[in-house]
Design brief:
The complex is a heterodimer of chains A (215) and B (1002).
Chain A lengths: L8 H23 L2 H4 L13 H7 L4 H4 L14 H8 L10 H9 L5 E2 L12 H5 L5 H5 L16 H9 L22 H11 L5 H4 L2 H4 L2
Helix pairs in contact in A: 5-6
Chain B lengths: L1 H7 L5 H4 L4 H20 L8 E2 L15 E9 L2 E10 L2 E7 L18 H10 L9 E2 L9 H14 L4 E5 L5 H13 L4 E4 L6 H11 L3 E5 L6 E5 L10 H13 L8 E6 L4 H5 L2 E4 L2 H14 L12 H17 L3 E5 L5 H14 L6 E5 L8 H13 L5 E5 L3 H4 L6 H6 L3 E6 L4 H5 L2 E4 L8 E4 L5 E4 L12 H9 L6 H8 L7 H10 L30 E6 L13 H4 L8 E2 L4 E3 L1 H7 L5 E6 L5 E8 L7 E5 L30 E13 L3 E2 L11 H8 L12 E3 H6 L27 E6 L8 H9 L7 H5 L8 E9 L4 E9 L8 H5 L5 E3 L5 E3 L9 H5 L6 E2 L48 E2 L5 H13 L12 H5 L5 E5 L6 H6 L4 E2 L11 E4 L1 E3 L14
Parallel strand pairs in B: 6-7, 6-14, 9-10, 9-12, 10-11, 14-15, 15-16, 19-24, 21-23, 27-38, 28-37
Antiparallel strand pairs in B: 2-3, 3-4, 5-16, 8-13, 17-18, 19-25, 20-26, 22-23, 22-25, 28-35, 29-30, 31-32, 33-34, 36-37
The chains are: A mainly alpha (215), B alpha/beta (1002).
Chain lengths: 215, 1002
């Protein structure tokens, strides 16, 4: 009564239904995840500033420009003056640096676009992290290799919690905070546990409490 | 359909949703579907944020770090020392200056501030102030400062004798200096000073007693016996912070076996009366009679014993005995509404018992000898009406609204050829003047002021004038064509002598006060006082007592929503004023709560006002407040609220009107009193006795209350906490962090002033909801002050307990048990956390909270006018909602606290942002927070140090010690919620042998 190909109809339908049922959640799950959405975000900045050159090749410490990172919640974006400390002598005629010179003369700010932009209900504090052994590279990736800065990590809540649950997997000695190339001298877990003790890092229950980050 | 939509969603474009064509509708729907799709599939990031660093950083400035600056705010001629927190160039919170002698609390740990000072922050960002210079009657309507200067100079030149200045009360040295310069430039100028809430009777009284205008300054920390004659020294006084802080010292010392005794006889029910040990309500003439009787009893020369009623007799007898016993440690103080003779009598009593120089000192009035405010305004109005004033400059104030009814100020103002008003708002007075000149807010300009004892402070600006206003001194400098026109330079010039070097100047700025600038103590003897016959109140009439409004003062804060929504400390009224009437008077006249009544004064003024039945209000006295009943000129928040009491104020009877007739007129009015809004479980009929204790001195499970004499003798008067064997909920899990946050609230020290409420509102970005939503119990304040009556309300025989109530941070929290989405959970430091982004708004937690401290945001109160029923029909994308909030209003927000939008539950967090701010800072330095490093917003505002926050796991922290205090107890202990906030029982000290009925517990 049915043609022979009808034998394939049932498995076909099952595959279509199951696949369809899986497709939507997977599409939203992976498509909507921070890994897909946020990683690689790379806005165009007013000045083609190269971290690869300054932080990488020239080896300027992160804190030379982002100087409030150890004291404040917010890691300062350097005022024009910091650029001009060097650029009054170096590359004084460069076309790319024109917005910087204009800002210096006019006193008006250079308007940068925020790359690592957390939701407003997250009260992230840089000083709380860098003073307890979280390196710059852990959240920002190899900035020293980026010509144009892009977001390297998802910065999602589940990603934050990976470290808040088990900080020993990620932390490093304080003097290595800005080292982009840091390799633990031995077992990371052992070093991490020791540092956790030394720096008085909160226990996991506290670190996972909502008020730790949300207020 | 369009009509329905328009009615339901006013302000919304009905065509947008109920468009005429099906195609249009589909287009709209598909657009929103596409948008929804985009959001979900994530091709859309949240709004891009920009970072704009300075070209060159200002010295000492660090991005995103708050800084505190000392400044001063002159309010009614008296400076209040402040410390203002600034974030990225905008002031976001006002605190008291701990270096200012009238702001620092007794322990010296911080500076307290009044609710008005706290609330001025909101005025800074009031967009209504944005008026520019208005020239009424001119073609353009607007003008420039140059036009104005040209105009006023021409007007003065045309008629130099017709130039007058009307100023609000001020003791600012720079303004007084500019006044002198103005007099030099225009020798015929007449300077008048007027303030609707005037303390002139005090000055008149000191003139009677000493022959000169002197301010008195109390030292309540030395006073064992305080007799208040109609004096609300703890709340309605320019030095109330110092006084209440000092008063609290002598209350808290009860734990060490010593407690002061406060007598209050008053013609209203004031805050001071509510915390007094012995209180008697009486008409103002009886207050004076009692003052004279006390004087006579103590042997003051010339004082005659008056005929007294039985209640007055026993009050006087007890007060005399105690004052005699206390001697120099006693003090008698009088309120500003009382007659000058009463003030003089009090000075005589203080001299007699030796209090002068110990518990009270006298200082020259910084403004010097001047005519009374009432005389000044009457003189000016007479001159104006006679056409003698050709040019009038009005500095601040709002005389067209708040001048007495009998001087015809508004009519006179119409006859002035050139009139200008320098004010923050284009108000009633500005509208009658030819020119409105925008005045800079005090946080926007340089200035100076003197505190109650004359201590001088420099005011420094926290922000550039947002709407281009000028300060008083800058405006005067323009008019006199001073060679110095810059505000800072004018102030520097004033202080050239005492702050000679740049270092002195900077030190004064940093400290917020100028050292040794207080007026010296004046030692003077009391002269013989004459005692005119007291005019008794005619039978069948009422005394109308007119007070400053505890929230909006004389009407100047009408457009300030924070203050409008702060309940009156006694009546708990919001958004209105009313006439408080005693229960017995009301019953006799058949008046119910909210009935409209008509007041007719003997001088022929009439007004209609709603009646508020106030237990404990003295018989025959109606208390009402000024400031309400303003029209559209008050601004969008303050317009058309309450009743204009200035209609019955006359120069002869500015605050006490005798012989008024009161009648019911058969209309009713909706009054909103918040006391019943968040009622704790079982405060009704029979349960009341168990919960509150029926009479003073009797304890319940909410209020613990005892007489001091018994507290001293009976060590077991308050039962210790007991563990309940039966538990409804599981035991709380172990909270083993090094920090266990907790709070202690001393009900013996709380005066109910309400400063904590505004402090919380400013700190935690709490919206206001408006009157119509307040009627529905939807106010959002995280902290409230419950005011409980004890005793026999029907016979006006009541005592009051003020209880500050906010989230108790229960260890065994009932709210957590019922949340279906885990939006409220515990952290390991013992905080009951509220997670806004998890909350779906079921409000189960609110229902299950026995303390009724959770607040739900029904209508996006932040971004829309609370009077509109709906802002718009959809809530907006979650991350763009806040962008709709007015750009200027937005500046007031604390960046450390989420601005919650609609549909989310919220509540007190113990100022978790302050906890984390301090902890992170200390831990970054390698140490940990210690006791006193963290002050919650409510604590920092509290002058009496009734609120103490700290760590229970720190053995010697103040809060740990207070937990071991005999008076410490948790509210509603029988529910076994184990609150982290504990209360200290209320103690009263009416006599040495008062014994209370046995406490009953459930």
């Amino acid at each position: 009564m049915f043609p022979r190909w009808a034998n394939y109809l049932l498995p076909g339908i099952i595959i279509a239904v199951v696949g369809g049922a899986l497709y939507v959640p997977l599409l939203f799950g992976f498509g909507g995840s921070a890994k897909t959405l946020a990683v690689g975000y790379q806005p165009i900045q007013p000045v083609p500033y190269s971290h690869a050159l300054h932080a990488g090749k020239l080896g300027i410490d992160c804190r030379y420009c982002h100087y409030t990172v150890e004291r404040a919640a917010f890691a300062a974006i350097p005022p024009t003056q910091v650029c001009m400390n060097c650029h009054t002598n170096i590359k004084t005629e460069s076309e790319k640096l024109k917005p910087i010179r204009d800002s210096w003369i006019s006193g008006k700010p250079v308007t940068w676009t925020k790359v690592h932009d957390l939701p407003d209900y997250v009260y992230f504090n840089h000083s709380a992290h860098v003073n307890h052994g979280v390196g710059c590279v852990t959240c920002h990736g190899r900035i020293d290799q980026m010509e144009v800065v892009q977001q390297a990590k998802p910065l999602s809540m589940s990603w934050c919690l990976e470290c808040h649950r088990e900080p020993e997997k990620f932390i490093r000695p304080k003097d290595q905070i800005t080292n982009m190339d840091y390799k633990p001298a031995g077992d990371q877990i052992a070093i991490g546990l020791e540092l956790k003790q030394k720096y008085g890092i909160h226990d996991a229950i506290y670190m996972q409490s909502c008020y730790t980050c949300h207020r | 359909m369009r009509d329905i939509v328009a009615k339901e969603f006013p302000g919304y474009d009905a065509d947008g949703i109920a468009g005429s064509s099906r195609r249009g509708f589909l287009k709209l729907m598909s657009a929103s579907m596409a948008l929804a799709g985009l959001t979900l599939t994530g091709c859309r990031r949240w709004p891009q944020e920009k970072l704009a660093p300075f070209s060159s950083n200002p010295a000492g400035w660090e991005a995103g770090v708050t800084e505190n600056y000392a400044t001063v705010w002159e309010f009614g001629g008296v400076g209040q020392g402040l410390l203002v927190k600034s974030f990225d160039g905008r002031p976001i919170k006002i605190e008291g200056n701990p270096s200012h002698p009238f702001a620092v609390v007794s322990s010296g740990k911080y500076g307290a501030s009044t609710l008005h000072a706290q609330a001025t922050l909101l005025d800074t960002y009031d967009p209504v102030r944005n008026t520019g210079i208005l020239q009424r009657g001119s073609k353009a309507g607007a003008g420039t400062w140059d036009d104005f200067i040209e105009g006023i100079r021409a007007a003065i030149a045309a008629n130099p004798a017709g130039f007058a200045v009307l100023s609000e009360a001020t003791a600012s040295p720079s303004v007084l200096d500019m006044r002198e310069r103005l007099t030099k430039a225009f020798p015929q100028v007449k300077w008048y000073e007027y303030e609707a809430v005037s303390r002139d009777n005090e000055l008149e009284g000191s003139r009677l007693a000493f022959g000169q205008s002197l301010r008195s300054r109390l030292y309540l920390n030395k006073a064992a016996v305080v007799v208040c004659l109609d004096a609300d020294i703890l709340c309605d006084h320019p030095a109330s912070l110092r006084y209440s802080s000092d008063w609290a010292v002598k209350r808290r010392s009860a734990d060490d076996g010593q407690m002061s005794r406060v007598y209050a006889i008053e013609s209203t029910f004031s805050n001071t009366g509510s915390v007094a040990d012995v209180r008697l309500g009486a008409t103002p003439d009886r207050v004076e009679a009692v003052a004279r009787a006390i004087a006579a009893g103590l042997g003051v020369a010339g004082a005659q014993a008056e005929q007294l009623s039985a209640a007055e007799e026993s009050f006087v007898k007890a007060a005399i005995a105690d004052l005699q016993k206390a001697g120099a440690a006693g003090v008698v103080t009088v309120g500003y509404q009382a007659s000058p003779t009463t003030h003089a009598v009090a000075h005589a009593i203080n001299a007699k018992i030796g209090a002068t120089g110990n518990t009270i000192t006298f200082h020259a009035d910084p403004a010097g000898d001047r005519p009374t405010h009432m005389k000044a305004i009457a003189d000016l109005a007479t001159a104006m009406n006679a056409g003698q004033v050709a040019t009038l400059l009005i500095i601040g104030g709002n005389p067209a609204f708040d001048a007495p009814a009998d001087v015809n100020f508004a009519m006179g103002l119409g006859k002035v050829g050139f009139s200008a008003h320098l004010s923050q708002y284009d108000d009633e007075t500005s509208r009658l003047c030819k020119w409105h000149l925008p005045r800079a807010h005090y946080l926007e300009c340089w200035g100076d002021a003197r505190g109650w004892d004359g201590t001088a402070s420099i005011a420094q600006p926290l922000i550039e004038p947002l709407f281009g206003g000028k300060s008083v001194i800058e405006a005067l400098a323009l008019i006199t064509n001073d060679q110095v026109k810059d505000g800072e330079q004018i102030v520097r010039r004033t202080w050239k002598q005492s702050l000679a070097t740049e270092l002195d100047w900077r030190k004064a700025l940093e400290r917020g006060t100028i050292e040794n600038s207080a007026s010296p103590v004046v030692e003077t003897a009391v002269k013989a006082i004459s005692y005119p016959t007291i005019v008794a109140q005619p039978a069948g009439t009422f005394v109308i007592r007119i007070d400053a409004n505890p929230s909006i003062y004389d009407g100047r804060f009408a457009n300030n929503g924070w203050l409008q929504e702060t309940p009156d400390p006694m009546t708990k009224l919001v958004w209105d004023n009313a006439a408080s009437i005693s229960i017995r008077d009301a019953r006799a006249m058949g008046i119910e709560q909210g009935d409209m009544i008509k007041i007719e004064t003997p001088t022929g003024q009439t007004m209609e006002i709603a009646a508020f039945l106030m237990p404990g209000q003295p018989l025959g006295v109606l208390t009402t407040t000024i400031g309400y009943g303003r029209g559209e000129a008050a601004g969008p928040v303050g317009e058309e609220l309450g009743f204009n009491t200035y209609a019955i104020v006359t120069t002869g009877a500015p605050s006490i009107i005798n012989g008024a007739k009161v009648s019911k007129i058969g209309k009713t009015y909706t009054l909103v009193t918040t006391q019943e809004h968040h009622i704790l479980e079982g405060i009704a009929d029979d349960a009341e006795r168990v919960r509150l204790g029926a009479v003073p001195g009797q304890s319940g499970t909410i209020i613990r209350d005892a007489f001091f004499s018994e507290f001293k003798s009976n060590k077991k008067i308050f039962p210790r906490d007991k563990a309940l064997p039966l538990q409804l909920y599981d035991s709380p899990r172990v909270l083993n962090n090094t920090h266990a946050w907790g709070m202690s609230i001393d009900m013996s020290a709380c005066t109910g002033c309400g400063a904590c409420q505004i402090a919380c509102q400013a700190e935690n970005n709490i919206p206001i909801v408006g009157k119509t939503e307040s009627v529905r119990h939807r106010e959002m304040n995280w902290i409230r002050i419950d005011r409980y009556f004890k005793g026999d309300a029907a016979n006006d025989d009541v005592a009051i307990v003020h209880q500050v109530m906010m989230c108790q941070q229960c260890e065994n929290a009932p709210c957590e048990q019922v949340c279906p989405v885990g939006a409220t959970v515990h952290d390991s430091e013992g905080l009951n956390t509220m997670v806004y982004n998890r909350c779906i708004g079921t409000r189960y937690c609110q229902n299950n909270c026995p303390y009724k401290v959770r607040r739900f945001n029904y209508f996006d109160f932040h971004h829309k006018d609370p009077r509109e029923k709906w802002g718009r029909p959809w809530p907006g994308l979650p991350d763009t909602q806040q962008l709709d909030i007015d750009k200027v209003k937005r500046l007031v927000y604390n960046p450390d606290v989420t601005v919650r939008m609609r549909g989310v539950m919220e509540k007190c967090t113990y100022c978790v942002q302050r906890i984390h701010g301090a902890t992170i800072k200390k831990r970054a330095e390698g140490s940990d927070v210690k006791d006193g490093d963290i002050l919650t917003a409510c604590q920092q505002a509290c002058a009496t140090e009734a609120i103490v926050f700290g760590n229970y796991n720190e053995a010697d922290s103040q809060v740990s010690k207070l937990r071991e205090n005999r008076r410490s107890y948790p509210v509603l202990q029988d529910l076994n919620t184990r609150p982290r906030t504990r209360y200290l029982a209320k103690l009263r000290n009416p006599s040495d042998d008062a014994v209370a009925p046995a406490p009953e517990e459930a």
